[in-house]
């Protein structure tokens, strides 16, 4: 197992370097750098002025060298100005050049400065990832037990009326995009002129005009059931159907195995057969799918966070991409790659423990 984990860690490191380099190369293409120069200096800059600004601010030179400086394995660039002052990647404002560190990249905790939020990228990502972390937590709390319950109930008795009803619900929820289900939930539960909110207000069952809040901005400071339920439900509905279908397929396959029939012939009750014999084996495939939901939730909440104006990771990614905030985009790529690789490692290790045949091999 130790050799397996070490080998996986080595592959993860190479994968992280390859993916982050691709993102770095794409975000540092000449059109993007030219747009950055004109947005930071002047939109009427000539081509030679743009090239001079890029060279003076560390965006010139070979892309591999700039990538190594961004990672923090190569010394940061240094420039001597005409007035005798020294500027550089590692020289902060008010810092003496001799006191500046030689390396200042991602490995040293220096993620750059956001041109949109006017803050260090580390602070921007800390806030946004923390907000999305709470959203991911409550989505998983709702989505995983619900989807597993629906999948197990559906797969226990294949072809029954319960199976058909639950399968129809799972297919419908998966086939409905988040921007559609989100709008429907807002119209039904968070509109003062449509849905059930006007009726509840007329009957005096709610104090305000709407049952739920149609925006989750207030949840950034104080999460409540009323301002967080709709974004959680919008994201969870999409994932519930997918996991439930995978669980149903796995449960259906397990229930037809010979050892299940043998247990039934020995007089073991149907409940014990399901709980003690079928359920663990049926959860092997859904476990992998559940672990894949973490990177999907981190990168796939863009629509929901934008729809409900929740300033999390997805919202930050949209703002950075729309405003050519290169440092923030690179920081988002590091977080996304890290989450994907770590969840894949946990998924592989968990799969080995769940499946004895793989562990023995």
TrEMBL record:
The keyword Transmembrane helix applies. GO terms for biological process: transmembrane transport. PROSITE patterns: ABC_TM1. Residues 129-347 form the ABC transmembrane type-1 domain. Gene3D superfamilies: MetI-like. InterPro entries: MetI-like, MetI-like_sf. The chain crosses the membrane at residues 9-27, 135-156, 183-205, 225-244, 283-308, 328-354. Belongs to the binding-protein-dependent transport system permease family. This is ABC transporter permease. GO terms for cellular component: plasma membrane. It holds the Pfam family BPD_transp_1. It is found in: Cell membrane. The keyword Cell wall biogenesis/degradation does not apply. It is a multi-pass membrane protein. Keywords: Cell membrane, Membrane, Transmembrane, Transmembrane helix, Transport.
């Amino acid at each position: 197992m130790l050799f397996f984990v070490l080998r996986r860690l080595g592959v993860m490191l190479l994968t992280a370097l390859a993916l982050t380099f691709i993102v770095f190369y794409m975000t540092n293409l000449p059109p993007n750098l030219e747009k950055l120069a004109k947005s930071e200096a002047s939109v009427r800059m000539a081509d030679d002025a743009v090239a001079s600004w890029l060279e003076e601010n560390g965006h010139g030179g070979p892309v591999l060298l700039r990538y190594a400086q961004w990672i923090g394995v190569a010394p940061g660039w240094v420039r001597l100005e005409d007035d005798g002052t020294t500027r550089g990647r590692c020289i902060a404002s008010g810092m003496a050049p001799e006191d500046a560190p030689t390396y200042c990249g991602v490995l040293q905790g220096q993620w750059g400065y956001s041109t949109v939020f006017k803050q260090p990228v580390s602070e921007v990502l800390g806030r946004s990832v923390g907000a999305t972390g709470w959203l991911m937590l409550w989505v998983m709390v709702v989505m995983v037990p619900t989807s597993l319950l629906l999948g197990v109930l559906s797969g226990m008795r294949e072809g029954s009326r319960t199976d058909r009803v639950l399968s129809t619900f799972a297919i419908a929820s998966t086939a409905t995009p988040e921007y559609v289900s989100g709008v429907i939930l807002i119209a039904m539960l968070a509109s003062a002129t449509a849905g059930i909110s006007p009726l509840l207000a007329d009957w005096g069952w709610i104090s305000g005009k709407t049952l739920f809040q149609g925006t989750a901005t207030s949840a950034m400071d104080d999460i409540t059931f009323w301002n967080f339920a709709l974004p959680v439900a919008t994201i969870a509905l999409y994932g519930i159907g997918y996991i439930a279908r995978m669980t149903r397929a796995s449960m259906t396959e397990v229930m037809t195995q010979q050892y299940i029939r043998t247990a039934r012939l020995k007089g073991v009750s149907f409940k014990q057969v399901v709980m003690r014999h079928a359920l663990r084996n049926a959860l092997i495939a859904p476990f992998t799918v559940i672990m894949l939901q973490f990177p999907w939730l981190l990168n796939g909440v863009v629509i929901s966070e934008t729809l409900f104006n929740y300033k999390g990771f997805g919202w930050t990614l949209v703002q950075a991409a729309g405003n050519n905030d290169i440092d923030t985009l690179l920081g988002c790529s590091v977080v996304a790659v890290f989450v994907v690789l770590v969840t894949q490692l946990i998924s592989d290790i968990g799969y080995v423990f769940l499946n004895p045949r793989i562990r023995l091999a």
